Amino acid sequence: MSGESLGIVETRIVTVFDRDDPLRMRSGATLAPVEVAYETYGELNSDATNAVYICHALTGDAHAAGFHEGDTRPGWWDNMIGPGRPIDTDRWFVVASNILGGCRGTTGPSSLNPATGEPYALDFPLLDMADFVEVHRALARRLGIRSFAAVVGGSLGGMQVLQWALSHPAEMGRALIFAASSRLTAQNIAFSAVGRQAIMRDSGFSEGKFLTRGTSPSKGLSVARMMAHITYLSEEAFQEKFGRSAQGGELSPNFGIDFAVESYLEHQGQRFLSRFDPLSYLYLTRVMDYFDPFADPHVIDALAADPVRFLVVSFDTDWRFSTEHSRRIVRHLEGSRVPTSFREIHSPWGHDSFLLEIDDYHATVRAFLDRAAEELA
Amino acid sequence: MSGESLGIVETRIVTVFDRDDPLRMRSGATLAPVEVAYETYGELNSDATNAVYICHALTGDAHAAGFHEGDTRPGWWDNMIGPGRPIDTDRWFVVASNILGGCRGTTGPSSLNPATGEPYALDFPLLDMADFVEVHRALARRLGIRSFAAVVGGSLGGMQVLQWALSHPAEMGRALIFAASSRLTAQNIAFSAVGRQAIMRDSGFSEGKFLTRGTSPSKGLSVARMMAHITYLSEEAFQEKFGRSAQGGELSPNFGIDFAVESYLEHQGQRFLSRFDPLSYLYLTRVMDYFDPFADPHVIDALAADPVRFLVVSFDTDWRFSTEHSRRIVRHLEGSRVPTSFREIHSPWGHDSFLLEIDDYHATVRAFLDRAAEELA
């Protein structure tokens, strides 16, 4: 692996909207307070021109790189961010935050509703991709950053990058969008819907009030997560990793865990429970279903006037957001003469590839950011 | 549509194994009584050489064609079976039965266990593809049929056809296998496992004793069915049928049913509850996971000595059991010089195609059975 890990890092929390200055949401609702959990890596230069923003995917968080005190596993994108890594913290000041509606420090549906003193639950307002971006922007203002050299994200993270670039192109030099989509297909929505149904039909869901009622839709959440994991890996990756091998040496027919692939899914489902909130899962997945920025033919006008350089990356075995999803983004950008580089990377690992250290992918990111650095110099 | 519907038909039930002559299962267990629900269409000729057996897929039943008294919808394969249809009842005597472990008249896990007077539930023995075949064979004996001109099935039905042909090749002239597999991939097993988990984790499952405890894992069963339906259609079929259109004219963001595809899945999940049993779902899906006949290198020996003519059909957009699954069956058969015709049919509809009236598919089946009829004449 190129470069090194950052070492010890920590998550901070800052209030970016309050009752006097609430977040005005796309739906018309207002929300306050809004706290944001974030981490930063590297040093902001004196004219604040070397900042890079990281937008996380559905189940990510602000802890993108380095180690929390006492942890043995680093942040979720440690292979990408660090000294000498593709997003090189010797050069860039990197900001990573937890998304609005999340459950890892940023205000979300399980946060206390100041009007009731109880968790919002389903009273939390429905979210839009633009709301995520407004919260990122508010954090940036707090940090004294008016414009980012680059904004980077994969999957739902890439969708935030796209939204940000479309609505506020002057705030970034480059946009890096990996394994993302500008519009979910019916099949994408179908998977998303069934995952939510698994949660909402769990008797422990208690109409969303499980936190105050002492129940939990944990079984539904683990089923949703197991199903989602099937879509994160390619069919060949599943076959290569597990094939039909038995978990315990030899197959012995039963209804529990017999095949290795069953054990993997069970483990993923179980592990997810300790770190994710069923309500956040509902809110965040639903934002993706509705995201469709190019439905507005004028959405790209601001970008044409104030170009951002795009890097769009897909992975050839990703069947959650296939290369066709990336091509669609590229078609819209190129149709408006927005400077866009597109790369389909070969990787056997499917959608999860954007999280992995794949030489061709990392080299592409590094080269694209090298050019950003040259422009700054 | 070519040909006509059969008109009124009815399901009969016959006991094929009893306490004095129980079903001896592959696992070593015995089972009695075993009742089988079946239907027949057309006339058996005097030397009983014109019989065709239909094996159904996961959620099918004995009612393959024609109408039950008072019904407005015909059996599940009415477009395939009837006078003048590809499986022509003017020529063939067609037998269709409900599978062992099913819930549509044949003995299954919700049947009464004579030892306790209560439903078997999870005390029902685990099943093997060979057990399905033994019950089909017992029904055939009851009907005075020693050999079938053809045995036909799609998906799990095709897997039964393959098993029967491998273990008792003298009992059929032709084997027609559509959209099937001789060995599930890790991804196939993963979908299967998550569906079962949705059922078994439903608090209404009550360790399988829901029938006597007055609970029901209906929410889990509907989630399993919704997820399975995603795999039955191709991505393009979902896109063509539903795209991103709203169920109620215009999208109005919420967590319920807003997109048309959500309404479709909800309807499929709901409708399934009235006709299917959660325990049968567990037992039948598990048989598919373990099915792997060619793991035994000698399994094909009997077939080489007593050839059956095979027709193997796949559909180009089927991603549940892709063409590669069919090719694998063909490779094994041809490797042992078993006469095999293979056709990949173009259809936009994915796995469900085997149930649909697709000209090229129906013409292929008709031509293959015409040759069987010529041999008999």
Can you describe this structure?
2 copies of one chain form a homodimer. Chain A is an alpha/beta fold and 377 residues long. The first copy, chain A, folds into 2 domains: 12-184 and 292-376, Rossmann fold; 188-286, Rna Polymerase Sigma Factor, Chain: A (Orthogonal Bundle). Chain A has 11 helices and 14 strands. In chain A, helix 2 (156-167) links the parallel strand 11 and strand 12 (172-178). In chain A, helix 1 crosses helix 2, helix 3 packs antiparallel against helix 5 and helix 3 packs antiparallel against helix 8 (278-290). Chain A is globular and about 65 Å long. Chain A starts with 11 loop residues before the first strand and ends with a helix. At the A-B interface, helix 3, helix 5, helix 6, helix 7 and helix 8 of A face helix 3, helix 5, helix 6, helix 7 and helix 8 of B. Chains A, B: It is an enzyme of class 2 (transferase). Chains A, B: Residues 51-356 form the AB hydrolase-1 domain. Chains A, B: This is Homoserine O-succinyltransferase.
